Amino acid sequence: MVLPAVRLLLGVLGLVFAYAGASRLLRARFGPGFDPGVWLAGTWLAAIVLAAATADLLPLPESLDPSKALTEPTYAAPSAAHPLGTDQYGLDVLGQIIYGARVSLVVGLGGVLIGGTIGTLLGLTASYLRGRVDGAVGWGTDVLLSFPPLVLLMALAAVLEPRTRNICLALGILVIPSFVRLSRAAGLKVAGQPFVLTARAMGATRRRILFREILPNILPSVLSYALLVVAILIVAEASLSFLGLSVQRPAPTWGNMIAEAEAEFQTHPFLLAPAVPLFLTVYSINRIGDFLRAGKEGD
Q1: Which of 52, 83, 222, 228 lies 20 to 30 A from 285 at CA?
Q2: Largest Cα–Cα separation, the chain
Q3: Domains contained in the chain, number
Q4: What's the pTM?
Q5: What gap in Å lies between CA 240 and CA 149, rounded to an integer?
Q6: Burial, 283: exposed, middle or buried (Cβ in 10 Å; 0-12, 13-18, 19+)?
């Protein structure tokens, strides 16, 4: 166990030094403002999205149906036929990682689309109408926030059938309050601006003021925050899968693959390979989000 650990440490150190050297060369070539980390993050995200979208077209060994992998060796070490080995069913680990990326990306984007749309509309409306509407929205937000997030998420996942659509819904409900508060705070700042007051004085309808004057001005902040939430929901889905509360086997997800690898990690460490794309995806999303926020603050 010591020798593989030393090799891993040396490999990580080699990558760190190689990245530092390449960063200096690229900044010297393209200027000090060039950030190779952002480009690497964008390349990784583009690759994982493309692979997940075209998984059915890729020449992958059997990765989904154990009955079709009966002739394949179980716990096979990485080889040319199976670059990341096989699991206890003889299914290809690399193929499962690619199919599992579909679940993670769909849940992350779907949850943000649901929660972000509902939360932004509620916060936007509350910031403009104020009064009882603002009070009702604030009360509902406080009620949702009063539940511990993990407990609420586990309760929703336990009640709903473990399907991708239902996991999106559960995670979407979980993030509604944060989008409400963000859009309400941003909307309150914009609602008092002269161009909004002028539109109101000229007889513009509430709908026009909300969607033509206020929403476009708070949208950059909402979208920047939404990118961060996508990363959070990907981790949340992986956690639910690890606990057996998300999509069930034989459908692969990064979380349930890591959960199954836990018992065999000592003898078959390659089964923990899904942890690598999970880390890289979440890190890449956060890195790009930080870059976009820094650019927005600079403007």
Answers
A1: 83
A2: 75
A3: 2
A4: 0.87
A5: 12
A6: middle
